[in-house]
Amino acid sequence: MIKSEEKLNGEDLQGLEEDSFAKLYEESMRDIEEGKVLKGRVLSINHDFVSIDIGYKSEGQLPVRDFLDENGELSVSVGDEVDVYLVKKEGREGSVVLSKSKANETMVWDAIKEACDTNGEIEGKIVQRIKGGFIVDIKGVSGFLPGSQADVRPVLNQDALVGRLYTFKVLKFNRSKDNVVLSRKAFLEESRGEQREKLLKTIEEGQIIEGVIKNITDYGLFVDLGGIDGLLHITDISWGRVPHPSKLFSIGDTIKVKVLKFDKEAERISLGLKHLKSDPWLNIDEKYPVGAKVKGKVVNITDYGVFVELEEGLEGLVHISEMSWLKRIKHPSQMVSLNDEVDVVVLSTDPANKRLSLGMKQVEPNPWDIVAEKYEKGSKIKGKVTNITDFGVFVEVEEGIDGLVHSSDISWSKGTEHPSKIFEIGQEVEVVVLNIDRKNERFSLGIKQLEKDPWEDVDSRFNPGMLLSGSITNITEFGVFVELEEGIEGLIHISEFGRGKDKDKTDLPEIGQEIEVEILNIDPVERKIGLGIRGEKEAE
């Protein structure tokens, strides 16, 4: 009830005649119409209801839940002014019937109408992507945003717009049909026009400016600088290796960039992000001198080696040949995996071409240096046969280090035999160290050197004209080889048998047959002895 000492519509009620008071009260009630949004004041709050005074002869009540915020907390206090919708002046119990939700809805529609009539703006959140566009929530009222009106440019990743709050223009609406058509494009075009003019007057190359990522492509980002879009190319994002930009950024992100180039006439702007930091290749010789041992992360694996990142934007190549001293690596993945942290040594730097050579095996001492110090030339060692080839046998002298016994160093007298007829894999043999080549990682061994070279003093044991017997070891087109003693062979030329190399050899002696010969000549340097047939000489 309205008390006499209160004011009604700003009038002092004291001293008014009863008729005047009734007339004034009646006029004030005309403003309280059903179906309108009214201002009310919170009178009291209990566990279930909030009592609201709208200036009518009776109060209204609304559920407490209508005034809870997103966190479930009560958002009003006694004395607060609130907007309510008058459903009915008098309900069953004589109190007014109010609605908070209808008040909110009515005010939203009023705001939509005003934005449409005055070319104003309204905010809403894109909540769903549908065929042809999007559903936008405008504080409880659903609006439709056509796909063509979502941006000033085609949006490649439309799903990225969902869940974000934007400002729109209202193209048209129909409250009775709950129909609202919105345009973000129109708002952007209008605001961008104003921003563009301002930006064109102030922007310059080298300037650091803040922008919002508007679109993401395979080749970079489009950044809205405020009226003008600039391109941040993928090569200008980081000094280091860059995956697809979408893995680093999202539409709507705010970033600081540097203006690299600005074409005012074409309104084209090239941006850089990596340029906000110094080039890591500067002073690289000081930071990473040759021989320095550093840690890095494996960021790429190829057939020919691995790339190791020492810091953002600074990668070096560990060639497959620099990964291990001893292991025979077919592919770098046998040694490392992506994102492994590894120790490397700087082998060389080339700042001009931005190349950095690294080594992994250099972290450990070179086992070939150790072997060279351990085994002197001429020393005797034992090892196992690990491989047999046409040109010799490989013998393991240390774990991972094999030495080669060339076929010519197997025997003084069995140089024509294939090594497989003499050795087996796994066989233990004694060898002599002939040479160690650290640079080319070659270890030369010999077996025949375990015995004295029978040719060493051959001219003291044999001389021309000497008659002796020997065993035939081989028959060729040009003659017959005769073993005079172990390790010493001489050659009877085919002509000694009275025929050329094309004559029939059916009457030649056989391998293993003993034959009497005469020494014709001796060449110790070339390791050759010429023989004649003793029987032929006597017949003459």
Describe this structure in words.
The protein is mainly β and 540 residues long. It has seven helices and 32 strands. Helix content is 14%, strand content 40%.
Describe the structure concisely:
The chain is mainly β and 540 residues long.
Biggest sheet record: 5 strands, antiparallel
What's the CATH class label of the largest domain?
Mainly Beta
Shape: rod-shaped
Strand order of the largest sheet: 5-4-3-6-7
Distance between the termini: 165 Å
Looking at CATH, the homologous superfamily of the largest domain is: Nucleic acid-binding proteins
Query: What is the overall number of helices?
Result: 7
Structural class determined from secondary elements? mainly beta
Helix content: 10-25%
Give the count of structural domains: 5
Number of strands: 32
Overall pLDDT metric: 84
Spans where pLDDT lies below 50 across 5 or more residues: 1-11
Q: In angstroms, what is the radius of gyration?
A: 50 Å
Strand content: 35-45%
CATH topology of the largest domain: OB fold (Dihydrolipoamide Acetyltransferase, E2P)
Task: Give me the CATH architecture of the largest domain, please.
Answer: Beta Barrel
What labels describe this entry?
540 residues; mainly beta; OB fold (Dihydrolipoamide Acetyltransferase, E2P); five-stranded antiparallel beta sheet; 32 strands; 40% strand; rod-shaped
List the helices and strands and how they pair.
Elements: E1 7-8, E2 11-12, H1 18-30, E3 37-45, E4 49-53, E5 60-63, E6 81-88, E7 97-99, H2 100-118, E8 122-130, E9 133-138, E10 141-146, E11 165-174, E12 179-183, H3 184-202, E13 208-217, E14 220-224, E15 229-233, E16 254-263, E17 268-272, H4 284-287, E18 293-301, E19 305-311, E20 314-319, E21 341-350, E22 355-359, H5 367-374, E23 380-389, E24 392-398, E25 401-406, E26 428-437, E27 442-446, H6 458-461, E28 467-475, E29 479-485, E30 488-493, E31 514-523, E32 528-533, H7 534-539
Parallel strand pairs: 15-17, 20-22, 25-27, 30-32
Antiparallel strand pairs: 1-2, 3-4, 3-6, 4-5, 6-7, 8-9, 8-11, 9-10, 11-12, 13-14, 13-16, 14-15, 16-17, 18-19, 18-21, 19-20, 21-22, 23-24, 23-26, 24-25, 26-27, 28-29, 28-31, 29-30, 31-32
